[in-house]
Design a protein that fits this description.
Blueprint: H1 17-32, H2 47-74
Keywords: DNA-binding
Protein name: Alpha/beta-type small acid-soluble spore protein
InterPro entries: SASP_alpha/beta-type, SASP_alpha/beta-type_CS, SASP_DNA-binding, SASP_sf_alpha/beta
């Protein structure tokens, strides 16, 4: 697998969201002080680190959805 490719079988409902999620992953990793491998291979990363990034991505996505829903109901 080349750089930036994933072995995940998950498919995004909106394929264009891939770039935004990738950007979010790098932002969160930087906030947590975790270095993402340049070659895209995550096999040498600690499970704790990859889990922390994934957990924070999920929290951030929930926050974004809550803000968008709140905006729809306050208008």
């Amino acid at each position: 697998m080349g750089a930036g490719q994933s072995r995940s079988s998950n498919q995004l409902v909106v394929p264009q969201a891939n770039q935004a999620l990738d950007q979010l992953k790098y932002e969160i990793a930087q906030e947590l002080g975790i270095q993402i491998p340049q070659d895209g291979y995550y096999g040498f990363m600690a499970t704790r680190d990859t889990g922390a990034i994934g957990g924070h991505i999920t929290r951030r996505l929930v926050q974004i959805a809550e803000q968008q829903l709140a905006g729809k109901f306050t208008r």
